[in-house]
Design goal:
- The complex is a heterodimer of chains A (about 140) and B (about 120).
- Chain A is an all-alpha fold.
- Chain A has one domain.
- Chain A contains four helices and no strands.
- Chain A starts with a helix and ends in a 17-residue tail after the last helix.
- With about 120 residues, chain B is mostly helical.
- Chain B is built from three helices and no strands.
- In chain B, α1 packs antiparallel against α2, α1 packs parallel to α3 and α2 packs antiparallel against α3.
- The longest helix of chain B is centred in the last third of the chain and has 42 residues.
- Chain B starts with a helix and ends with a helix.
- The chains are: A mainly alpha (about 140), B mainly alpha (about 120).
């Protein structure tokens, strides 16, 4: 396999891998999140979060993959494909960045779930029209 | 990738995973009790415990894959050892960052939910 073929195959392989890793994380966390969403005080928020959850993991994974540039110290395309070890390094860097971005996404989702758990929906007051119930 | 480089990479990854499971084994039981006590929701406990495990695994992979092995077969053994050490240092930095973030999250979670339960 030539270096150029390796570059094309590995680039798309790592791109697909980023999606697979994100979906694996989603599959692992989907059920507990759905269970938690059932007890969120705000039902609409629970529905939005359940639908946004896969995108909230897939997008950071793709962002991590796309954030690695092959144009570092190599200026031209020819110099990029001249060195196989440089291409392997870039693939490793892509996987590392995907994992890092996903790790941040998992932390952020933890914060979002926490905020959702303590969010109170607006309830009408005892005699008021849409007034929040103040006690 | 030469067999020596591959061996170095696999050893680094294995050590990172060993560190991950050591931290998991140390913390998971007490974290589960804390989450059970604070959340009072089995799904919530599962969500935060799984997030913790996934975060640790991703930190290990981020550090492990971030280290490159591109030595020649004639390079001395200690070069490989130093590269594995550099990789482990990176893994530890990722662990530190993740644990710091998770600790802050759990502290806020416990404080906020305790206040909410006391209302």
């Amino acid at each position: 396999m030539s270096n150029e073929q390796y570059l094309i195959v590995s680039y798309f392989f790592v791109g697909v891998l980023s999606t697979v890793i994100a979906m694996a994380v989603y599959a692992f966390l989907r059920r507990p999140l759905a269970g938690l969403a059932g007890v969120f005080p705000n039902r609409n928020l629970a529905s939005v979060l359940r639908k946004l959850f896969p995108a909230g993991l897939l997008l950071p994974a793709l962002a991590g993959f796309l954030s690695v540039s092959y144009h570092g110290c190599h200026e031209s395309y020819q110099s990029i494909i001249a060195d196989r070890s440089y291409l392997v390094d870039k693939n490793q860097q892509q996987i590392s960045t995907i994992c890092f971005f996903l790790m941040l996404a998992v932390l952020v989702w933890g914060v979002v779930v926490l905020l959702s758990l303590v969010t109170q929906p607006k309830q009408p007051g005892p005699g008021g029209d849409g007034e929040p119930n103040r006690r | 990738m030469s067999p020596q480089n591959l061996a170095g990479f696999v050893i680094l990854l294995a050590l990172s995973l060993a560190l991950t499971f050591a931290i998991w084994a140390l913390v998971s039981k007490s974290l589960e009790s804390l989450l059970n006590q604070a959340l009072k929701l089995p799904d919530g406990t599962t969500f935060y415990l799984r997030s913790f495990l996934i975060g640790l695994l991703l930190a290990a992979f981020a550090g492990g894959f971030g280290t490159t092995f591109n030595f020649k077969p004639s390079d001395p053994f200690m070069e490989y050892v130093w590269r594995v050490a550099a990789g482990l240092q990176e893994v530890c930095q990722y662990f530190f960052g993740f644990l710091l973030g998770y600790l802050i999250l759990i502290t806020v979670l416990v404080a906020v939910l305790r206040a909410k339960h006391e209302q």
